[in-house]
Amino acid sequence: MTTYKPPRPRIGRRPLVIALAVVAVLLVAAIGGTEAYARHQISRCISGAFEQQMGSSIDVGFGPKPMLLSYVDGKVGSVTVDSEDNKFGPAIGMVVHAKFNNIELVDRGRGGGTIESSTADVTWNNDGIRQTLGTMVSGVRSSASTGVLTLDVLGGLAQLEVQPLVRDGNITVETKSAQFLGIGLPTDLVQGIVETFTQSLQSYPLGLRAQEVEVTDDGVTVHLSGGKTALESASDPSGRQADFTC
């Protein structure tokens, strides 16, 4: 006598497909949420560190590497930084576009990190130059064809012509002409203006050094590059380390 065995219920193909689709959606959502969290945390950390050293608010972008991997291994392939109205040294109104490569974070950013290499382009317009050089300079004009900037001094009664040049990774500013009604300007006046101009073009953060300087009809552009350098951890205004945990 044989025992009757009821047939096993068959799972229809449609419910199986739906179940797999739901699992896939939940998995994608979980990965996406984790990636968004990692991106937020690392962006917060890196922005704080860069803003502290660049001295102004910045926009940060990341390379193609998923931030979830960076959150785990503490390595960021590349970071682009765009910033307006920077103040490097005495300079006012510099606009910066920079790229920092191969950043390795220490303790997920709490201990800062290291930057393997970097490049940057800085634009400094004539009005920013005028504001930087103080009340003695009432106007600034620049010429791409001559590579010379003309500074109106003493209310426009005198003109000081200068030319920025790169030497050994630093920018020097040479005086081409300094005349007041056909008479040379006082040495102290000329020296003070030129020193402020020079210092403004030499004060760059994060190991960046000048490779090229160009005078345009709107001002000055500088191309910078840097080697391995430290990225200091961010701190709050009281000097204590800020909570930028990556």
Blueprint (SSEs and pairs):
Blueprint: H1 13-54, E1 58-62, H2 67-73, E2 75-86, E3 94-105, E4 113-125, H3 126-133, E5 137-143, E6 148-153, E7 158-167, E8 170-180, E9 183-184, H4 187-200, E10 209-215, E11 219-226, E12 229-231
Helix pairs in contact: 1-2
Highlighted features:
single chain, 246 residues, alpha+beta, 2 domains, 5-stranded antiparallel beta sheet, 4 helices, 12 strands, 29% helix, disordered C terminus
Give an overview of the whole structure.
By secondary structure, the chain is an alpha+beta fold. It folds into two domains: 29-119 and 227-231, no CATH class; 125-224, no CATH class. It is 29% helix and 39% strand. Strand 7 (158-167) and strand 8 form a beta hairpin. Helix 1 (13-54) packs across helix 2. It is elongated, with a radius of gyration of 28 Å. The N and C termini lie far apart (71 Å). Residues 26-32 and 236-246 have low confidence and may be disordered.
